[in-house]
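Margin note from the TA: students keep mixing up input and output lines. Inputs are the sequences; the output is the structure of the whole complex. Example:
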Amino acid sequence: MSNDLVQIGRRSFLKRASVAVAGVTGVMASLSPLKEVVGDIDIEAWLQQHYHELSPEQMKDVLARLEADAKRTYGVDVKVQDIKPRPDTKFAYALNLGVCVGCRKCAYACEKENNVSRSPGMQYIRVLEMDKGGVNLETANHQYDPETVPKPDKYYMPVQCHQCDNPSCVKACPVNATWKEPDGIVVVDYNWCIGCRYCEAACPYWARRFNFEKPILPKEEINTNTAYLSNRPRPQGVMEKCTFCLHRTREGRYPACLEVCPTGARVFGNLYDPKSEIRYVLENKRVFVLKEEVGTVPNFFYFFEA
Amino acid sequence: MSSHDGLFNGALAVGAGLAGYLVLALVMSSAAEPKNVRAPAEEPVNLDFGPNERRQDEVLLHKAGFAYECIECHAWQTRNPAPRRFIGEHLLMNLEHGAVNTCFTCHHPTEYSSLTLPSGEIIPYNDHVRLCAGCHGPIYKDWRNGAHGRREGYWDRSAGPVSRTDCIICHDPHQPAFKPIAPLPPPGVARGEAFAPPEEPSTVLGQVLKYVPPPPPPDRAPVRLEETEP
């Protein structure tokens, strides 16, 4: 009770104070971002439990709420599901740098598939252009824009989340809003994330993206088949990243970036299945991982082979 | 020049038929360039990730808006196996396939509407993968195992089908090198670009206060993923 009184007292004080400085527009302007950031957080979302603590009934309510939110915000009937990992499955990805031409189709297909905000720099997949003859990330360029690709003296390396076995991003998260699922995918609970961006700084592969702005999504391009842990429309101010399209891959399908690749550079599959395509690559090609020395143990492999 | 002879003889043999063809060609050629069979370049990409559709069971020569079967001309025309620059037909045909420099390495020497294997076996056009496999064994093995060429559908074969793209969807058999394509625009520079060390204050409040409202989003033209298969 006394707490409440103090609160009210503080609030009315603030009111008076703000009246006092009403003329100082600069102060008001400096407060307006607060409105932008916390403006339309609704109370239910605010009080929602962590993903792991939601009972099935609560989850049903949450999904219904998210669907209603999406309808209100974008006017589209989005289906949000909670798709669980499959048993005996661990996903891995391989990318053939010998055939990748750097056309960026994967990045755009991903953006569309995952309802990624169209604001600049948000794409989960970043394609690095490098000089042939080495892997020099220092001089890599991801803003290349020639008439046609590939350029003869360059090669191209798409980088997205590596779904590490020893993920530094997960360790960096102070609130446990990001974790590794049994099928190897590192996921984010967008409703639990506080947007501190520690994980972004911890990731050695620049794979995480922060939603600075309210997501810009053209209504007619929204993918309505979504999952809680992957491509559902996200709020502003949270971290997001590639989830190997878990809403597709957990249902047995290929990720969107793989299907759109015009060169067939991408190979995806279940590591535990000895007959899978990914196992064929790991057993027959000389694969390497990016920044092996940092000890993150990625599940994303590269190889050079025409 | 043997090629001229061949053409000349053929023309004599079916003079009337050829005349009709020439008239048609003259009438139509100003309107339509000879179209290659595989040129749906303007078609937008199929972002439904559906299977690649391409008819290979029937290979036709498209010309002046008409489609001709190979035998319509080659039934009467004298066969000429010499590598050369064509002047009578197939003017745009330019074989750039490594050491493969004769048409009849792949095309059957008499059955123009079929391919042939080195063994002499006649195979239909839609079986061309067997032809390519004969000379590109390792790549064929990769392709079979899903490490070369493009796939669509289900990685889990028990959940659904998978489609594999045939070699000629990506490689023109006559100039098999993968054609350069136009890249989609670069992602643009965003605040929080990961290459620059993060300079934002690390507390939530600090970030909120440092928050600069974004400029209104530029009218970004919707980027269409263009289908680039030849």
